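In the previous lecture we treated proteins in isolation. Real proteins rarely work alone, and many bind small molecules. This record shows how such a complex is specified: first the sequence, then the SMILES for zinc ion.
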Amino acid sequence: MTASVERSLRERHAELEARLAGLTRAPERGSGISFGKRVGDGTVEAVSRLNDVGVVDSLNASKERVERALAKLAEGTYGTCDVCSGEIPTARLEAHLESVVCVSCGRHARRAP
Ligand SMILES: [Zn+2]
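The predicted 3D structure, ligand included, written as tokens:
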């Protein structure tokens, strides 16, 4: 079971990295988005970049969860909630392999850093 979970997580991780690589090709990335400094063509570009940034953020968040799940596999704590140390139901893990918190902690901590 663990081996196949790890394989699936690694596949997912590779897929997320490939998508991120495609989205973050632009050389100037790093110090946030400069938005609204220019008008005209720049605005359109900024808007489309802003959308990309939203996608990149959510892909990065997914990638971090997958990385955390892989770390938990290595630690032997996979299937245990990172917040309350409670057991994560198998059904939840099967639906979301990268789950690192239980249902109720996930609900409460959705916007935690
Ligand atoms: Zn919990």
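Summary for your notes: The chain has one domain: 2-108. The CA atoms of residues 19 and 69 lie 19 Å apart.
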